[in-house]
């Protein structure tokens, strides 16, 4: 395969998020901070220990990553200025930016990148274990060059790197526990104060290699209730609420001194199905469920905060096929498929998390009603998100019947949901030779157009088996005080460097 040399212009920092009680550094900060209401805090400020959309969003303010995904979905460099991809995408070599320093003044070099990945690889409990499973070596070529070697093709590696925050080798190794509350990063901000589950205060990092942020100080206020967060926005106590619940949008549209900004996210809502559970082992029965759902009705329930979708990724994610049609409801076909499947009226458990998004219960009730209209008996099983998530990681064993969830790949690349949903033996018993072959082909393909074609063919092959029913792309509408300019990102991260005083 031909050698690919990609030039990259690194703009903003990116990657994982978290909590922590930081180094002092607020002295001399000027101006009022922007106050951002978040529903939950991170559990640690050690970015090798937590991997979630919330965490990566927080970390993106404190640490740098090798690459990032731009607001328009393009791969760009952060610490990297250019890179080469060889050996069917098994080997990636990155040239690092000169002059980058951590907030303690120490230079960031290839040693720090190597140390970060070796630390993750050594940690058998790391939440990043699956992401680095194919990584066999991280090599320092020289102070500004790092080589990643995989045991199998990884054409998605450049995008996936945007979730790995780089930590300083010496400062981290000296006291990892202290680092988890007083982190040292090379990103645009440093942690001035952190009271877990209450507040995190950030101040501009004077050592930052890029342009100084327009807003010098920021406060992440933890407000678990989105309704309370919206009330605080109305009262002027917070400046940004990243996700406004659908039922609040109409009233906020006419509110003074508040602007609403909307973006398509990388998250897809879907129905998962346990293929080993009674009637769901039959393809006709699964296709009946797929034909019974009404995506347009779901959009109405979500007050327009969704767009119908029939594939595992959204337009913001690499691999989205804009020509793939979105299925429409066909109740008659659903009833015929139920009859064809030999279904005898067994009750199908329908599990969903109650406390992750405010609209989940209403959505689950709507979908259950749609499925029941096709002649399928459904029993709703609401559970707390913490319990649901632990079951979701081992869905084949722990989640019976069908379940409702949303998913968005932090790497903004289709390779991750393909692995999670279509080729992961702990997630599902689904297996399709064509899908497996196309998965390997797209991972070895260094031409993006050819890779996108393979992914499209893969999605089509999987849809014929209906192991999942993809429902809609989540939209995110955020509320922002008229004092600031800010817009949601597709990856749902809140990067303070993208906040500016209103002109």
Structural commentary:
There is one protein chain. With 503 residues, the protein is an alpha+beta fold. It has two domains: 4-224 and 488-501, Periplasmic binding protein-like II (D-Maltodextrin-Binding Protein, domain 2, 3-Layer(aba) Sandwich); 264-475, Dipeptide-binding Protein, Domain 3 (Dipeptide-binding Protein, domain 3), CATH 3.10.105. It is 28% helix and 23% strand. It has helices spanning 53-59, 110-122, 157-160, 169-174, 176-179, 226-235, 246-253, 283-292, 295-301, 331-341, 360-373, 385-392, 395-398, 415-422, 433-444, 448-463; strands at residues 4-7, 34-38, 67-69, 75-77, 80-86, 91-96, 135-142, 145-150, 189-195, 199-204, 217-222, 240-241, 258-273, 306-308, 348-353, 378-383, 402-407, 468-481, 484-485, 500-501. Strands 12, 13, 14, 15, 16, 17 and 18 form a seven-stranded mixed sheet that branches. Strands 1-5-6-8-7 form a five-stranded antiparallel sheet, with helices on one face. Helix 8 runs antiparallel to helix 10 (331-341) and helix 14 packs antiparallel against helix 15 (433-444). Mean pLDDT is 92; it is low at 1-29.
């Amino acid at each position: 395969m031909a050698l690919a040399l990609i030039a990259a212009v690194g703009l903003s920092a990116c990657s994982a998020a978290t909590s922590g009680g930081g180094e002092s550094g607020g002295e001399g900060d000027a101006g009022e901070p922007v106050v951002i209401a978040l529903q939950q805090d991170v559990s640690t400020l050690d970015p090798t220990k937590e991997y979630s959309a919330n965490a990566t969003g927080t970390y993106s303010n404190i640490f740098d990553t090798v690459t990032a995904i731009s607001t328009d979905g393009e791969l760009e460099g952060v610490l990297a200025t250019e890179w080469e991809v060889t050996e069917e995408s098994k080997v990636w070599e990155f040239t690092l930016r000169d002059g980058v320093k951590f907030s303690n003044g120490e230079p960031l070099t290839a040693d720090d990148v190597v140390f970060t990945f070796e630390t993750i690889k050594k940690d058998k409990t790391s939440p990043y274990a699956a992401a680095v499973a194919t990584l066999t070596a991280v090599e320092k070529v020289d102070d500004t060059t790092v080589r990643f070697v995989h045991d199998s093709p990884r054409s998605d590696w450049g995008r996936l790197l945007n979730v790995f925050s780089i930590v300083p080798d010496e400062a981290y190794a000296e006291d990892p526990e202290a680092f988890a509350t007083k982190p040292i990063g090379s990103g645009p901000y440093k942690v001035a104060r952190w009271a877990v589950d209450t507040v995190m205060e950030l101040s501009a990092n004077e050592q930052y290699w890029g342009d100084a942020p327009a807003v010098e100080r920021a406060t992440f206020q933890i407000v678990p209730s989105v309704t309370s967060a919206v009330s605080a926005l109305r009262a002027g106590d917070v400046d940004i609420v990243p996700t406004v619940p659908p039922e609040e949008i109409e009233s906020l549209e006419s509110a003074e001194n508040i602007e609403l900004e909307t973006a398509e996210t990388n998250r897809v809502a879907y129905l998962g199905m346990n293929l080993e559970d009674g009637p769901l082992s039959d393809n006709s029965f699964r296709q009946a469920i797929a034909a019974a759902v009404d995506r347009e009705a779901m959009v109405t329930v979500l007050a327009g905060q969704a767009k119908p979708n029939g594939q595992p990724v959204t337009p913001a994610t690499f691999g989205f096929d804009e020509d793939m049609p979105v299925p429409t409801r066909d109740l008659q076909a659903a009833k015929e498929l139920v009859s064809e499947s030999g279904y005898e009226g067994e009750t199908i458990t329908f599990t969903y998390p109650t406390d992750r998004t405010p609209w989940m219960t209403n959505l689950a009730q709507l979908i259950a009603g749609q499925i029941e209209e096709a002649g399928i008996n459904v029993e709703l099983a609401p559970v707390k998100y913490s319990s649901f998530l632990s079951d979701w990681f081992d869905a084949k064993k722990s989640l019976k019947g069908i379940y409702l969830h949303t998913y968005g790949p932090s790497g903004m690349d289709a390779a991750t949901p393909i692995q999670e949903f279509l080729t992961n033996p702990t997630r599902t018993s689904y297996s399709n030779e064509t899908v497996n072959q196309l998965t390997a082909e797209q991972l070895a393909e260094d031409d993006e157009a050819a890779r996108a074609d393979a992914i499209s063919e893969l999605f089509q092959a999987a849809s014929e088996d209906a192991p999942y029913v993809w429902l809609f792309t989540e939209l995110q509408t955020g509320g922002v005080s008229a004092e600031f300019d800010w817009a949601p990102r597709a990856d749902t991260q809140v990067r303070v460097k993208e906040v500016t005083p209103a002109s």
